[in-house]
Amino acid sequence: MITTTHAFGTALIGQTEKALNAILDRQLAGTGITEPQWVTLTLTVAGGGAVDRAELIHRVAGATRLSPAAVAGRIAELTAAGFLRDGGDGHVRVTDEGQARWTGVRNAIGPITQGLWGDLPAEDLATAGRVLGIVLDRAQALLVA
Fold first, then answer.
1. I need a labelling partner for 49 at 20 to 30 A (CA). Which of 24, 74, 93, 106 fits?
2. pLDDT > 70? residue 17
3. Domains, the chain, with CATH or none
4. Which residues of 36-46 are buried (b: 16+ CB within 10 A; e: fewer)?
5. pLDDT digits (tens, 9 = 90+) for 80-126
6. SS3 of 88, please?
7. Residue 107: what are its φ and ψ, rounded to 5°?
């Protein structure tokens, strides 16, 4: 186990985010899904597999900082790839192929994240979650100001 100590700040947050994205990118390689598409697919699956299109665009834009038009483009790409479909009723639905692709990546990521923080004390994880949540809330407030 690596036991180096890092000062909390933008460098640590940025390096952590880049390392985690690199891990995700490895898992997405060969799936036909990009990271922004992954977020879109994940939020659709998390929404029960059928999500109001406008709500999905809002959620993905908030999570990724992409414009609504860019998010609509990711939905269109996932639809063209057969991972999502337009339900014709204002809802976006996950296809069987989209669900299978999402499940495969999630199953690959699970043991990785378990190895990264699964053995850390619950109190440490709660503290990290609170601190990062506060930083995120403040950063998002600055972006809308």
1. 24
2. yes
3. 25-118 (1.10.10.10)
4. bbbbbbbbbbe
5. 999 999 988 999 999 999 999 999 999 999 999 999 999 999 999 99
6. coil
7. -65, -30
Instruction: Assess contact for 87 and 44: CB atoms under 8 A.
Output: no
Residue 5 in 3-state DSSP?
Answer: coil
**CA dihedral (138, 142, 144, 145) positive or negative:** positive
For the range 58-62, what are the long-range contacts, defined as Cβ-Cβ under 8 Å and sequence gap of 24 or more?
A: 60/36
Q: Count the residues in the chain.
A: 145
* Cα separation, 77 vs 83, whole angstroms: 9
The per-residue b/e assignment along 62-85, b for 16 or more CB within 10 angstroms, e otherwise, is eebebeeeebbebbebbbebebbb
